[in-house]
Amino acid sequence: MKAKFEKPVQIEEGDTFKVVLSKYGALALDKQENLSNFIGETVGDLDIEKGTISFEDNEFPIQILGFYTDELKHWSWAWDNEDIFGPDLIQSAVQMKAIGDEFDIPEFSSPILNANFDDCHALSMVTIAFLGMDGYYAVSEEGIDIFVAIKSDLIEEDNSVQKFRNTFTTFQQNFKVYPKIAFESYTKLKGYIHKPQEDFAVAKIGESRIIVGFTERGNVTHIQMFLEED
Prior knowledge:
- There is one protein chain.
- By secondary structure, the protein is α+β, with helices and mostly antiparallel strands.
- The protein contains seven helices and eleven strands.
- The chain has helices at 17-39, 82-85, 91-103, 106-109, 117-131, 161-174, 179-189; strands at residues 45-47, 52-55, 58-69, 74-77, 112-114, 135-141, 144-150, 193-196, 200-205, 208-214, 220-226.
- The strands form two sheets. Strands 1, 2, 3, 4, 5, 6 and 7 form a seven-stranded antiparallel sheet that branches. The protein has a four-stranded antiparallel sheet with strand order 8-9-10-11, covered by helices on one side.
- Strand 2 and strand 3 (58-69) form a beta hairpin.
- Helix 1 (17-39) crosses helix 5 and helix 1 packs across helix 6.
- Residues 1-5 have low confidence and may be disordered.
């Protein structure tokens, strides 16, 4: 059931990267799970000259987001490497730089970041969810890991209530985020109805419900699922 909301999910003045990850990360994890189900154990074959990545017989156009150098522990944004990748493959990265400049978020506007591998995943997650991509993939090439964004109608969505609950649970447990913001944003970005109360919030998914309890600081106390009866 889709719905319109008075306050859509968006990046706002004063948002830190942690807030932005809280807003968009659960949806990105949702998309990554869909991609993982589609490609299985297949290893991606990146062709930068063609601007594609292939998983056996499935070939997708890509956008290059950036690359990680483990030796230096650096993330480098693709927008700062047009001479390597060319202008066509870095358009998504350029869009994120514009967001970083507009809202003063250095994680998007700094060409090189001190980072670990998990940080690279977080940057890629925000990017694909914010830009409406369908997933990202990291390819190891000559000592670096190149992160590319994928958009394809072939990747099927799993919109089950169980998937929603499990994805939110995994996200808030494994990422340093604000769970209350994450639950509201994930609910709205999926097009479901979000109903906040004093110490809990409800996601209405058709006639089913996900109820999440929160402490005063916004941490999760419990998650309940009530499925629509057949």
